[in-house]
Amino acid sequence: MPAAQPDYVIAPPPQPALPIAESTALFPVRRVYCIGRNYAAHAVEMGHDPDREPPFFFQKTPDSLDASGRFPYPVMSEDVHHEAELLVALGKGGENISEDAALDHVWGYGLALDMTRRDLQGIAKKAGRPWEIGKSFEHAAPVAPLTPATTIGHPDAGVMTLTVNGTPRQQGDLNQMIWKIPEMIAHLSQYYRLAAGDVILTGTPAGVGPVLRGDQLELTFDGLTPLRVLVE
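-> C-alpha cells emitted (232 positions)
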C-alpha cells in the first residue's frame, strides 16, 4: 500500500534543479557552498593577503541558481560584480571524507557566476555582519548545464575565461586554486554532513568587476557547456 502523502498547509516550493548537457534529466540541488578568496590574485585585488590560510565558505540559497541565461539587475544595489567560477555537483555525501576519496563523491561539473552586490557586501563587511545580503538574492548564481564526471573526468587544470561584450575580463587556470577540489570537499565534510545534491562554487580568479544592463557575459572552459548571460 503506497505511503500517505504529507498534508502541507501550503503548497511546497518547487525543487531547485540544474539542467544537464544533452539530457532532459535534471540535477536536484540541496545546498550551495561557496569558497571565498580561492585564487591568490583575486585575494590581492580584494585587499587581502594571498598566503594560504584556512578556507572559509558562505552559502547561497539553492533557488538563487538560474539557468535561464538572464540576469535581472538586482534591486537596492548600484554596484553588481561578476565572479566566474567552476561548479562542482556532488552525487553522494558523508562526513569526514578523506581527500583521497573526495572525487568519488562528485557527480559532475558546470560553469557558474557568483553575482555579488558589492556595495551591500562592503557595508556588511565594514559592520562585521554576514554577507548574505550581498551574495544570496534572486538570480544570484547564473549557471550553465552540468556535464557528468563520467564524460569530462575530474578537471584540475585548464583555463576558465569570462568575457563581457566580447572583451576578456577574467581568466584563470584551475591549477591556480589555493584549495583544490578534493581539499574543499574534505574540509566541508568536517563541518557539515554533505549529501547528494550539494554543489560547491570553487572560487573566482582576478578581474572581478561591475556589470551594466545590456551586458553580454560569456564564461567558457574546455569540455563544459559555455555559460552565456544577458544582464537586464
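Residues 181-191 form the longest helix (11 residues).
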